[in-house]
Amino acid sequence: MSLPLIYFLVRHPQYSFRNEYDVFTFFLDSFVPIIFVIFAVLVYTATFAQEIHHRFLVYTRLRIPLNKWIRIKFFSNFVITFAVFFIFVFSYFIFAYYIEPRIGFVSYNNDFYQLNNTTQEEYTYTQNTFSQLLAYGNFTYGIFYSLWVGLNAAVYASLAFYLVLVIGIPFLGLSIPFILYLVQSFFMVTIGKVEFQLTQSLIPFNYTQLPIWTAFVPFSFLVLLCVVLAFYLHLKIERMSHLQ
Known about the structure:
single chain, 244 residues, mainly alpha, 11 helices, 0% strand, elongated
């Protein structure tokens, strides 16, 4: 979680920032889009995968029904991953908008962008997807976007969770969400549908503003995958040798 801050402290003198929004996006638009899914899976699902790999379930299911055990693990995975990434994003929002201006690391340069104070604010409202929420207040944007990133992280972790259970090979189950994340994003570029990229729906700071509903299309695809896997697991759970 501290890596974006370290990167900012090292690199910020080499960049020109227009306002607090630029500082906030700088934290998340460097290497975070690449490693996002990896870290989302590592928060809790990786530990869960080790339990499956080491057959910890053999001892646990003597004390608790298998379906109940899976539900408990799923909700733990979802809530913890969501909370970690919400705090991660919201902390950087607070730093960019309320802490950094008091410290004064950054000297804002509106002249570089040829914007006055009025057009600067208007431009920010139309800069990236979700930035239109800034019209309702900075805090509204910060809360909503942090919730959005946290929810996406929890869904990726849930996808890995179900894949580990269904496939029974922890490393493969943990890897597929990351592979899907990259392959789907590349495929959408090749067919000219950048607006429906998984990467674009999550961290949309390197593209023009899109309607917020476009971000929910790839997100809905991920949720659908989780629902299908959960349904399949429910039907086949008693026949899966690695869960017995």
